[in-house]
Amino acid sequence: YKLALDDAEPIYHIYGGTQDKGTQGGLSRTLKYYGITSDDWDIVLGADGHQPATEPGNPDIIYAESQEGNLTRIDMTTGERVFIQPQPGEGEPYERYNWDAPILVSPHDPARIYYASQRVWRSDDRGDSWTAISGDLTRNQERLSLPIMDKTWSWDAAWDVNAMSNYNTITSLAESPLQEGLIYTGTDDGFINMTEDGGKNWKKIEVSHLPGVPATSFVNDIKADLFDANTVYVALDNHKYGDLTPYLFKSTDKGKNWKSIRSNLPDKTIVWRLVQDHVKPELLFLGTEFGIYFTVDGGKNWIKFTGSIPTIPFRDLAIQRRENDLVGASFGRSFYVLDDYSPLREITEEKLKQEASLFSVRDAWWYIPQIGKGKLGGADFLAPNPPFGAVFTYYLKDGYKTKRQIRQEKEKKQIKENKAVTFPGWDSVEMELRQEPPKVWLTVFDENGNTVRKISAPVTKGFHRVSWELTYPSSIAIDARRNNSYGWSLPAMVVPGTYKVMLSKEIDGVVTTLSDTISFRVKQLQKGVLKGASPEEVVVFWKEIRQIQGEISATSLELNNAFTKVKAMQKALQRTEIPPGEPDQKLHDMKQELMTLIEKLNGNPSKNEIGEKNNPTVKSRVSVAAEGVQNSTYGPTPTHEQSLGIARKELDVLNAGLQVITEEKIPKIEKELEALGAPVVR
Predict the structure, then answer these.
(1) Which of 324, 378, 455, 582 gives a 20 to 30 Å CA spacing to 114?
(2) pLDDT tens digits for 157-166?
(3) Cα dist from 525 to 7, 394, 542, whole Å
């Protein structure tokens, strides 16, 4: 049904009412590798869940309700629940609550809440006590006398309204954040009501007074503008009468006059919810029967979100202002979060006409993800976290293509039009063969202008998001024969601080800058209970490990190549016309020397084969240091530093021995083999 977001730090919670599954709430993300699991969510209230609410500045207090306005306040520190539904006074009739009754926390006082039945209630003590601030704001009809399927019915008809919503109820509430006491309501029977004095005087507006709106329309949502006290928005719905028209209006004079902002919304697209960005007034979002739309120009043009969001009903939307996240509650398909929509504030027609644009970057959290738990079975749910690190958003007007792609697109069009396709010529074909694919780069700099990382990014047209995991590039050696890395290195993160990113393209080897640099911060998220090294000291040690792991991978690769070459030289020696003798002995001894070095680096191969323990090796000592610090920002202990120090000494000795073999012994015996007429080994 509906949703609410709190402002818990560092991670906010999402709460939502569900059909027959109560009101549920949980983390919007976690600090775990695996993402968000079922264990990160709880049922906070049973029955049918409906509109929840949270208290700004106090995430320990939430409000939840079950059907027909059964309102409860929940203390999240204890889990205790207090029933706080407003009750009629002595001699008053019962309260008609909508199936999904509206609740509103006042933007002027977090302890003040508004609630609505057929009238509006106000509490200044979080629901402990209530005061009605309006009379009946609906038509107050006898619903059994109203026509159903175009006629009224006998008392003996199959009436059953026990598990149905009341009628003639208030469905929507809004208070201006700029003018205290300016309150709007919408009803299920065709009224918009407004008071400017906190409920002393109310003005009724028939929805039929809005251009083209039927009198029977249901007010799905009403919102006071965040920037102009005179402006209000309303979304209406008449689908119960077979009318699927999207009714969406704006008033700039507190409801006296209304103008449709439906614009290019498709026909038969019911509008459920509207929310306004808290920074850019013209940026609005719509939850509709067929997905989520946004506009950057106040409703002149609506754009539908595509990509990973399905075309399904979204009954509610909310914005988490600290994180600039848009959260949507779908009807039957869970919650969807658009992380950091702030780049939408920067979109203009001028920017979309530029070759490329790079948008602002949200601050990135510096922490070590926890292990958490994996999926435990069919009943366990797992949702992804936002990408770790800094997320870069950019736009390419046309994208970049190879000469071959351009030719093939042209020929495809010619074939479709039944036109002849001509041979482009040998020079053109050869140019296509030699051409490197176009590249787009995101280059990260530290605050001193030093390059930290160069990230390859998509080259196709449109909007793209690419994440940087806050790490330096890998130091692992590259095997030229296989064109891939040879080993593994610790992903050393950068120091928290200020960084910059720049967008560029590389076409035929020529690099061209596409954007100015955009600054962002990498912020330490948390500190452990024990005082360890400073982030700067931690990063220095990570980089030392990264450096030696790179050297080890280079040594391993060189050992492997040398061993392979000696084996090839043995084969070449077999092809000479001399009897076995001294050269065979030299190659045998050299092979044994290499195997001894391999053992010092990796351990005894025979023991490794069956898992028997080895004496400490260069790699095992580095592993002790790496495993000691890779899952923590605490920093190295003396044991870790000692292990790395010993590994450094042993690696230097090993490399010195390897250098003698590769630079002296192998070249010397190569010349001897050539003199003996052996085939060349490369």
Answers:
(1) 324
(2) 988 888 788 9
(3) 16, 26, 18
